[in-house]
Each structure stands twice: as C-alpha cells, then as structure tokens.
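Morning!

This is the sequence you dropped in the shared folder:
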Amino acid sequence: MAASAPRKTSTRKRAVTKPAADLGIVLDDAAAQAEVAELVADREPLFTVGGITYTIPKRVPPSWSMKAYKIATEQGEAEALAFAAEKLLTDEAWEALQECETVTPAAWEKVLNALVDRILPDGVLGPKA
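The structure's back. Tokens below.
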C-alpha cells in the first residue's frame, strides 16, 4: 500500500459562537422607554387657574425620585423642589402658578407638598413639619 500524503492542517481557527451574554435587566430598551412614557402620560389634576386644569403624573419614573433625592441631599430641599416642579409641571402650569395673583399661602403649600410627595418617597427628607 502506498503511503498517503501527509494531511495538511489548517491554521485558521473556527469561529466559536459564544452564548449570548447575560445582560441582566435591560433598563433602556424600547419596552422600558414605552412604559415610562405611558407612566408619565397617566396624569391627574393638581390645580385649576382661569378655568384650565393643570395635571401631574400619577406616578413617576424611579429615576426622577433618585435624582430628586440626590439633589435634596447634596444641594438642599429648595433645589429638589425646583427639579420636581420642572419634571412634574408643564411650562404652562408653572407659568399659570406664577401669574395667578390669588394663590393663597395654604394653596401654595398644598401644591408644593403635592410635588414633593409625588417625586420623593415617604420620609426621604424626614418628617414634615
């Protein structure tokens, strides 16, 4: 029997398919974005000025709460309140509040408390006075 020619070995490596990496919980995919948009769009009345009712979201994304908490602890409650107003109120609502000369101190306090209560979890800044 004749000797067979030595077999050539390929120096190319086979492509190895790795299993998909475990990404854990994907927080910014399209489904999450849609859920947050829906969350913010579900609103309830906060106040009425000039026959126009202004609303705030019934629930807020946790990221808003985390950011408000961080602002409150690092910069103070006033800055956290400013952040809450910016996130929760439309420009028109904020303008209406500023322009309404009949806002009483009691009504103003209710609006501010509603903003803080909505964006910060209970007791984050300690008991209310």
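Headline: The helical segments are 30-41, 62-75, 77-88, 91-99, 105-119.

More detail when I'm at my desk.
O.
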